[in-house]
Amino acid sequence: MTFLVKRLMVLAVTLFVVSFVVFLIPYLTPGDPARKILRARVGDLDADPEALAGLRETYGLDRPLLVQYGDWLGGALRGDLGLSYTSRTPVVDMLGGALTVTAVLAISTLLLALLVAVPLGSLAAVRRGTPVDTAITTVTQAFVAVPEYWLAPVLVLVFSLQLGVLPSAGWEGPASMVLPCLTLALRPMSYFTQVTRASMIDVLGSPHITAARARGLGFGATMLRHGVRNALLPVLTLFSLWLAGLLGGSVVVEVIFSIPGMGRLLYESVVNNDVPAIQAGIVSLVGLAVLITTLTDVVHAWVNPTVRAPHVSG
Amino acid sequence: MNALLTVDNLTVRAGADPATRILDGVSLTIHEGEVLALVGESGSGKSMTALALIRLLPAPLVAEAGALTVAGEDLLAAGERRMNAIRGGTIGMLFQQPKRMLDPTATVGAHVAEPLRRFGRLSRAAARRATVELLADVGIPEPRRRARAYAHQLSGGIAQRVMIATALAGQPRLLIADEPTTALDATVEAQILRLIAAKKAELGMSVLFISHDLRVVSAIADRIAVMYAGRIVEQGPAAELLAAPQHPYTRALVECSLLRPDEHGELYAIPGHAGPALSLTAGCRFQPRCAASHAARLEHQCAAAEPELAFSGGGSADHTTRCWVASPQAAPSHAAQPKEQV
């Protein structure tokens, strides 16, 4: 499987480059790191020089940048991303928890979106030009414009306050996932529906569908065996883009529903100037994004043989 | 010989509008083991006829027919479930551009195995063996390896052989071949024609062979039907129709197929172009391009009324032509008396 090996090498190189750039970013912003740490911890603007020296000593901030990077990278490879400037707990632990929460949220959101969008988009394509198609197209186009900070309170108002069937906040058990997932799923669901519709219309008009019908396959069987697989290729690409995006966490939704996810963690780290948390957070998100792209390529190759198999003629 | 396919008065319209006759009163008969070629230029309605026969016309098009019978079965009365058994079963289809007729995400073997499993009720393993046999049978080298290949890895010729294997998998009584060699190289074209002819002889199939190319048709057809703007204008035994074409349009086609330059070194081309079947007049559809009508001074009659498909004198009794000039006896009494043939 040279295809996979090549892909994984690209992944490693990308991660290496990204980690260096991300490591540098806090040093490129003006200000003394030690001073920033102190300010983050105690809000002390008029820092004691001895305390600053102590911090430089503890975190090795007076060493050359490349040495610091090497140190950090070595630690990262061993699973040690340093201590948070604010909470003084290992960054790995903070990150692991937040990433798990966000991953669960993102994947359930997108699966929900996909589950609704593929049948809906296919229906619109098959019934192209009818009122059913018009309704689906118009509604999903409108949904794209619905902002999360509006939808979330409305859902809370209806399901938590009026009906009292779902919790309005927190992250405990499946019930608490429903409203955040619904809020997040609306936009990807709308995009997936429209892309499914467009690519399904394409596939429906392609000659191999006529040929399959002429072989005696019924319409439904033709769609299942020769339609959906072809039609899902563009949806797959869009799905992976959304997944990479959602793993960064949605600040709005995580704050509104009090979800301890990546969005909130990163937001708070930036506000608090918690450099180790920011660095580790960004690198792991970029790493995940590249990993997802790689996985998408692998799945693409599995679904679409023109990517995988060599072109030979004869 | 018994008739395997009977088409009577097949008409195709776009929607409910009676004026839009894309196919108009097409009647065909194909006997058991016979090859009927349907010839005409692009847009004359040949492919439309093929799709109407297996009742797979795209949405706005509606077909009507007096009769549509294959192997004794009335296709007009058949339900969708029965039609699915007839498509790929009783009737096999070949198309132009074979590579685009294969699902890009499915292997060659999957295509061939599909009708085998459905019609032959074979197990997965048995279907796989039968697939490799069929692929070898249609002259595909290394059939075991090819069965695992995808459309984009095939040449046009191999892809058409795959389509032939797929069509034969359902053991059809009638093979409809819609321009099966048009997208292929001349040498490959000859191979595919030989393969179709060989399979037809071996399996005793009938073939409806659709082509725009009289030279290709002359190699395979027993009888020829010539189509112009949704109408059959001449029909008869292949050799006779090619040697002594009656309809001015058929003559022009034969002249074109000879690729014989005139004294100026120019190849013959039929003047004008086929008008859209939507803008029909009452008269003969070929009249605006017809030199014979002009020479015989029959323009008035030809433009006023369309002739019937009738015996045109000379040759076999089943050689019929739709032409005032060629079939003078068919002229209605109120029209001017036509002159002898031009």
UniProtKB/TrEMBL annotation, chain A:
GO terms for molecular function: dipeptide transmembrane transporter activity. The chain crosses the membrane at residues 7-28, 94-118, 231-257, 277-303. It comes from the Bacteria. This is ABC transporter permease. CDD domains: TM_PBP2 (cd06261). It is a multi-pass membrane protein. Residues 99-296 form the ABC transmembrane type-1 domain. It is found in: Cell membrane. Pfam families: BPD_transp_1, BPD_transp_1_N. It comes from Streptomyces radicis. The lineage of its organism: Bacteria, Bacillati, Actinomycetota, Actinomycetes, Kitasatosporales. PROSITE patterns: ABC_TM1 (PS50928). Its main location: membrane. Keywords: Cell membrane, Membrane, Transmembrane, Transmembrane helix, Transport. Belongs to the binding-protein-dependent transport system permease family. SUPFAM superfamilies: MetI-like. GO terms for cellular component: plasma membrane.
From TrEMBL, chain B:
This is ABC transporter ATP-binding protein. It is a peripheral membrane protein. GO terms for molecular function: ATP binding; ATP hydrolysis activity. It comes from Streptomyces radicis. Belongs to the ABC transporter superfamily. The keyword Transport applies. Residues 5-254 form the ABC transporter domain. Its main location: membrane. One of its GO terms (cellular component) is plasma membrane. Pfam families: ABC_tran (PF00005), oligo_HPY (PF08352). Signal peptide: none annotated. Keywords: ATP-binding, Cell membrane, Membrane, Nucleotide-binding, Transport.
